[in-house]
Every structure is written in C-alpha cells, then in structure tokens.
Write a structure and sequence with these properties.
- The structure is a single chain.
- The protein is of the alpha/beta class.
- It has two domains: 2-39 and 231-251, no CATH class; 52-230, Rossmann fold (3-Layer(aba) Sandwich), CATH 3.40.50.2000.
- The protein has ten helices and eight strands.
- The strands form two sheets. Strands 5-4-3-6-7-8 form a six-stranded parallel beta sheet, with helices on both faces. Strands 1-2 form a two-stranded parallel ribbon.
C-alpha cells in the first residue's frame, strides 16, 4: 500500500537525508522528494522563556541540573534506560549532587508507565524524578527552557519535532547514535550521540554534559542558528506553498470557480 501511494504521488516531502534513503529503498523516488521539515515556530521556541511556574509546580530549585525526556511514554523510547542512566549519573557525580529528571507521559502505555514508576521507587529516586503527565504543547517552550539537557534514546526514529524544538530553545541534546540524527548533531560538538540500549554509556554522557557547561552554551548558539536555517516554520510554510502552487499550475483547480 505504501509503495502504491508513493508511486501515485507527484511530490513526496521528507524531513531528513535518512528518510530520503528510506524512501529510495522502497522505490526510485529521488526526483519526487522535497525537503520539508514541518518547521518550528521560533518566535515561541527560543531561549529566555519564563519557567518559574514550572519550578514551583515540580519543586525544582535554580541550582539543580535538569534532564528532560520529552518523547512519548512507550517502550520504543527506552525511558527505562533514561532512568537507569540518571541513577548512574548521580552515582558518578557523587553525594550531594542536585539534579532532576523530568519524564513526559504523552500517549502513555499504562503498563510501561507503571514499570517506570516502579523502577524509580526501586532505585530510590522518587525525589529526583518528576513524572509530569501529558504536557500541553503550549507549555513545551517552557519545559525546554527549564531543562539543561534533553535525553532521547529510542530504538529507531525519523527526525523528531522535539529535537528541533530543543535545539531552538538551546537545550543540550543527548541522543542515541542513530543515522538520522547525524545530519544535525555532531558528537561532542553540539550534542552527544551514545550507543542505543547502553544505560552506562548514557550515564557517562549525562555526566560529561553536566561537567561541560561551556560546551553546552556554545552548542546552544550553534543549534539555534541551525534551526533558523533548516526548520524555521515561516520558511517551511513558504516551501509548502510553493509546492501547492507548482501542482496547481500543473493540474489546474479541478473545476473550482475562478474566485476560489
């Protein structure tokens, strides 16, 4: 069915080089592919967003380093490894280390969510891990500003909007070493890429990021600029409109009145 749809389409939009490759494994579609990244509203997703209401809501102090897991609360996103790695990070950082891990629960698999909360209790992290439910999208800029570091280690991925949003807000990304991310992130330069499925390696990367605040600041500037170049919503909207205009010129308006 997918191949039939792709064969029929005049134009196929793709968010990344990795997805281009996936499309071309299905068929010869290179001539149809156009880069559209959906876009991020960079007037909403930026640095300097007020976060005091979130600190009060979740009892997070200003001197606490905040890690954020924004992805869906489902097994494919490996949030249990994020929790295990956070425990590893606290162990490496030593006694008295202040830190919080924020776990979003959008589209939660109930059994998996229970498993995560049980793991937190087992590791003695109840005070350090905040399960924040399904975050309303209008609050996402504040969450990314609250967070120092975003963590996302899924088993597989396309090009997630949450990465664009994090980069636009200056949140430092720690990601799985998946091919799709390498288009945007260079390990140790503007983020970290770690082996998927390895909680110890993730804990090491979390500790490294915590210890290198200047590199996080430099990465924040680089990442914001990158998003303005490739994923600003206004620019992406213009690309989509140009695609529609191209198709209208090719096919006309299918009998629509001239004034519509």
């Amino acid at each position: 069915m997918i191949k039939r749809i792709l064969n029929t389409a005049d134009i196929i939009t793709s968010k990344s080089i990795f997805l281009d490759g996936a499309l071309n494994q299905i068929g010869n579609y290179a001539h149809k592919i156009r880069r559209v990244t959906w876009g991020v509203d960079t007037k909403r997703f930026h640095t300097g967003v007020e976060v005091g209401f979130l600190r009060q809501r979740w009892n997070i102090q200003k001197d606490e380093l905040v890690f954020f897991c924004p992805r869906l609360c489902q097994p494919i996103y490996n949030k249990h490894l994020n929790i295990q790695a956070f425990a590893d990070y606290l162990g490496r950082a030593g006694p008295g280390t202040k830190g919080k891990l924020i776990v979003a629960e959008l589209s939660a698999d109930k059994a998996y969510s229970r498993q995560l909360k049980g793991l937190v209790a087992k590791l003695g992290l109840t005070e350090q891990v905040c399960f924040v439910g399904a975050i309303p999208h209008q609050e996402m800029p504040a969450y990314f500003n609250l967070a120092d570091i975003m963590v996302s280690i899924p088993q597989s991925d396309g090009m997630p909007q949450s990465l664009y949003e994090a980069m636009a807000c200056g949140t430092y990304p720690i990601l799985g070493n998946l091919e799709t991310y390498r288009e945007l992130i260079q390990d140790g330069v503007n983020g970290r890429l770690v082996k998927v499925g390895n909680a110890k390696a993730l804990g090491e990367a979390m500790h490294w990021a915590a210890e290198h605040s200047e590199k996080r600041k430099t990465a924040a500037i680089m990442n914001r600029q990158r998003i303005l170049e490739v994923a600003d919503k206004e620019g992406q909207d213009r690309i989509v409109l140009s695609i529609y205009e191209e198709l209208l010129k090719k096919y006309g308006t299918y009998g629509c009145p001239d004034n519509e």
